[in-house]
Amino acid sequence: MSIQSMKTEKDGLNIIWNDGSSSCFPWLWLRDHSESEADLHPDSKQRQIDVFSKSPDNKVIDTKLDFNAQNVIVQWHDKSNSRVSFELLKSLASTKSPNSQALASDSCWNSTKEMERLPEMSYEDFMGPNGLQVWLLHIHKAGFVLVNGAPETPKATKELMERMAYVRNSIFGGFSVWDNKLENPDDTAFTSLAIEPHTDGTYVHDAPGLQTLHCLKKDSIGGENQLVDGLAIAEKMKIEYPDYFKILSKINIPGRYIKTDTYLEARRPLFRVNDEHKVVQVSFNNHDRAPFRLDNESMNKFYKAYKVFHNLANDKNRQFQFMLEPGKVLTFDNWRMLHARSSLTGYRQLCGGYHNREDFESKLRLIK
Ligand SMILES: [Fe+2]
After folding, report:
1. How far is the CA of 323 from the centre of ligand 1 (A)?
2. Distance 211 CA to ligand 1 centre (A)
3. How far apart, in Å, are the Cα atoms of 68 and each of 1, 39, 85?
4. Stated pTM of the model
5. Is the dihedral of CA 190, 191, 192, 198 positive or negative?
6. How far is the CA of 271 from the centre of ligand 1 (A)?
7. Per-residue pLDDT tens for 91-109?
8. H or E element: which one contains 7?
């Protein structure tokens, strides 16, 4: 779509596109979105124009389409000019409320058979020129990625994570090394017990975006890892159990983490959706769910809906099962994938940490 012509109107500037459609941009909006050097800092891209503290005189003297520079120029009565690029006008040709970014539902998977291919790559490829891009796109599409043949050290694992962005700090520290022989483990993750499919951080307002795990030492039996695509469950429930989907996207489920010196609690729906009813985030941790009570009818409905999700998440046919081995680094989208672990006997040492969601989105934005 490109600009064909424009027409000044009382309410704003009407841009006529080459497909015959038109978009009328209000005069104040044009002034507020001016991209001239004076109005939008050329380096920081931060807004300099202030249309609020002193009401600008929005009487228009002249408007011009600059096809060479691909800008619309508006000259105002107070002799100032606004410059808005064709690109910006085109990107906002239709009006809609700003929305939280939805998960990539076109590539969600209900079983490993539905995965286009196993999202894995060699450490060598990851460290190569396009390695990070491939890694990011695997996570974007499949919800996770495995890097094989990585050096079996905390240092190399931390460096792998830092290739994407800084490691996030949390109640468990930043980048950490742990084993299953802690005397006083403060989470099931640090034991040999089985853990049901869940997402991490249901008790923090901003759940970790990505999680990386690397098993550095292994002298154990069992302890297989499972991944389930929570987004695929959401899409299935949206169609097959629309009432339950609605319940799980409405009720703020509290999660908690209680230790002697810590009491974290946060709440959000199992399916966080945007204004277009698209799923933005899946949050589920039955182990960490805090007590709450609704009226009896709503509570019963909630239990029914939660049960459907729980049972789908625990359906072995939906799970990708694998063993974390030294040299195999797993990173998954904690806003989409549920992870689980079978019980084990013996010794395991792991390392890993979290990334913030916005840093993952930032990198994706730069490569797409
Ligand atoms: Fe976990």
Report:
1. 15
2. 9
3. 17, 21, 11
4. 0.91
5. negative
6. 18
7. 999 998 899 889 988 899 9
8. strand 3-8
